[in-house]
Amino acid sequence: MTSLADLRQAYARGALNEADVDVDPISQFEKWFAEAQAAEVPEPNAMSLATADARGRPSNRIVLVKGVDARGFVFFTNYESSKGNDLAGNPYASLLFFWQPLERQVRIEGRIEKTSAEESDAYFHSRPVGSRIGAWASNQSRVTDKATLEANEARFAAQYGDNPPRPPQWGGYRVVPETIEFWQGRPSRLHDRIKYLRTPQGTWNIVRLSP
After folding, report:
1. What would the pLDDT profile of 89-106 be if each residue is shown by its tens digit?
2. For the whole model, what pTM was predicted?
3. Would you tell me how many other CB atoms lie within 10 Å of the CB of residue 211?
4. Nearest to 176 by CA among 108, 103, 89
5. Which helix H or strand E contains 84, and what residues bound it?
6. Distance (Å, whole) CA 79 – CA 41
7. CA angle 108–124–139, rounded 5-degree value
8. Dist CA 82 CA 93 (whole Å)
9. Is 189 known to be catalytic?
10. Do 78 and 177 belong together in one domain?
11. Is 172:114 a contact under the CB 8 Å cutoff?
């Protein structure tokens, strides 16, 4: 077994310069996301979501981004889950995309807002029926057993059939970015880090960070 201290990889696939990035970080993200899809990166929409509770204790998990536009980055979940409870007490979050085949990361930090009921309804009804039933069956993050979960699934499937409504405790969050950082791996660990910082006027300043 190789020693953990000896595990390393050289990064040399690309470079990132201030002159080459879009003035708008969302447009830059969309460009990189399209390149991740073209490179067939597995689940390029998977992102790490970091939250902290009201006491400042952090928590992290992988979720899927389901919408990106000028307003921010959207994901959906149970509002009564661990992440929902964190966000109720401390409405800020950090996101991380890691596209290893391209040696790229994108980090987003910002405040949280709930999506509208209309946005949550639209996405919920686009999901497979099984996923919609699952949203009713699961009291997310609470202690349970498999038999109870399966019984809940059967009960709600019988109750709602092929057209379950959106549960009142289920919906979307939007991370409204205050900073967005694009990271490109480089040789000798001199990685390119380009960071966008939102100004009070809503425009973006672009800076380079030391690796």
Report:
1. 999 999 999 999 999 999
2. 0.94
3. 13
4. 108
5. helix 82-89
6. 30
7. 85
8. 13
9. yes
10. yes
11. yes
Q: Which residues pair with 125 in a beta bridge?
A: none
Residue 115's pLDDT is what? 98
Other CB atoms closer than 10 Å to residue 47's CB: what's the count?
23
Structural domain includes residue 5? no
Residue found under tokens 């998977």: 46
In a domain, 4, yes or no: no
Q: pLDDT over 70 for what percent of the chain?
A: 100
Can you read off the two tokens belonging to residue 153?
């699934």
**For tokens 């709600």, what's the residue?**
156
The predicted model gives 50-63 an average pLDDT of: 96
pLDDT beyond 90 at 2:
no
The DSSP bridge partners found for residue 60 are 50
Q: Which amino acid is at 75?
A: F
Number of helices (H) and strands (E), helices first, in the chain?
5, 9
Q: How far does CA 90 lie from the centroid of its chain? A: 17
Residue 75 falls inside a structural domain: yes
pLDDT in tens, 60-78: 999 999 999 999 999 999 9
Dihedral, CA of residue 89, residue 196, residue 201 and residue 173, to nearest 10 = -30
Question: Does residue 27 sit in the same domain as residue 106?
Answer: yes
- For residue 79, give the nearest of 153, 32, 139 by alpha carbon: 139
Rounded distance between C-alpha atoms, residue 179 and residue 193, angstroms: 12
Of the residues 13, 57, 142, 189, which is catalytic?
189
* Cβ atoms 199, 11 nearer than 8 A: no
